[in-house]
Amino acid sequence: MFYEIAEMFSYPFMIRAIIGGTLVSLCAALLGVSLVLKRYSMIGDGLSHVGFGALAITTAANLSAIGHFTPLEFAMPIVIAAAFFLLRLSENSKIKGDAAIALISTASLAVGIMAATMSNGLQTDINSYLFGSIISMSTSDMWLCVILSIIVLLMYVIFYNKIFAVTFDENFAKATGIKAGIYNMIIAFLTAVTIVVGMKMMGSLLISSLIIFPAMTSMRIFKRFKTVIISSAFVSVICFLIGLIISYIYSTPTGASIVIVNVGMLMIFAVTGWIISKIQLRKNIR
Amino acid sequence: MTLIECKNLSFSYENTSVIKNLSFAVNSGDYLCIVGENGSGKSTLVKGLLGLKSSAGGTIVRSDTLKANEIGYLPQQTPAQKDFPASVYEVVLSGRLNSRGFFPFYSREDKKIVSDNIRRLGIEDLTHRSYRELSGGQQQRVLLARALCASKKILLLDEPVTGLDPIVTEEMYRLIKELNQNEKITIIMVSHDIASSIKYASHILHLNYEQSFYGKTEDYIKSPMGQYFFSEKNK
Predict the structure, then answer these.
(1) How far is A255 from chain B, CA to nearest CA, in Å?
(2) Which residue from B75, B85, B104 is facing A169, i.e. has the nearest CB?
């Protein structure tokens, strides 16, 4: 097994996958904490489906012939626009926000699959967009991934205190003069960027789990915002690396492997958290 | 000194008037209770005072010494906060955000103000506890400390005793009264508990789609509104 891991690092495409994937996992974990706590998890899920639709159409239309844009770069503005739209939907309680998001995500999925099947010879590509693939990451994809991840991470650090305030208590934040709407849009924007970047490797059906799992896992044990954030970052990266190794050794789809590892981690944290709470309870009784 | 003065103030949602003809003033050191039935426009007025909702008519004049974001606000709790992982310290610290402007991090002075306020409300032993594990009364104290970090002059409390048991409610009222008397902090409190409002407040504003009463508490007791309330209570 050690031999196989060493061998894994000798392939340039694996190095690209590790660098790109680690950064995407990190971004997704940080944003995930805010999204889960703000009850916006569905936005992440909806966006990944919109991303699939956009990617499938741009691939099918072969737009890369115009200019030197990759389908990923074409999908980006569409997903960002969708992020702002979905945010508005869930903020507006008059429309049933969650139902609207479900409509949009299934519609984009359908459009994407139609576009893909109508243009021939794209079956393998579609499969990798849906379920993820390690070999999909080209050098230019990796650099896009590195640059965007650094932007996401920097913005997150700079706005950390404001993101906390807006996540914990939007009314109070507004009253102290914070433009909560702008920070919600920043969170949505960063999520859109992360999803598009991570979609090719994780697959659009599974990228939203990268956002939701680490946050949910960390909250089983940790009880402060900062520790939850730090734990999520570690959980996310560790699960990604373990999943990637499993995917390489057993030739399983990357996205699914990573999600399975995340499920395992969630269970470990849940049991540990439960034991800790029992011990504390006993201490308090004494 | 007048901190906030409202004249002929009215608010509306989509052209339907919610409250109209509000005229009242909040002076430094006052303890004003805004009372009224559910849906009488109390929450709308709170939003207006915080500058989150623009008025449909009339004016709100703030004194020059009071900046728009310098009102310490204690909002009603949201369901999302019930399972929110945050330490007491993190929550109280977020009260200092209005002093930050564009600068992203807190200063040493901010941290000092935070520990001062934590001590003031007697919640030092909870500093590193998780907010979601506290009792309702403790949570309200934490939010009060956060509000104090945002302002030393005026607090706006929106139903601060909702969901608290009678003993803790009484403690909370006493704490607010102490802040008002000993620290000269101006209090505006929204409440539907008229009996306690009369007991603690210096001024009463009674809303019922429009201003039913505004004035000193002792005058309120003699007014038809107050008399009505007492006769209901003694039945």
Answers:
(1) 28
(2) B75
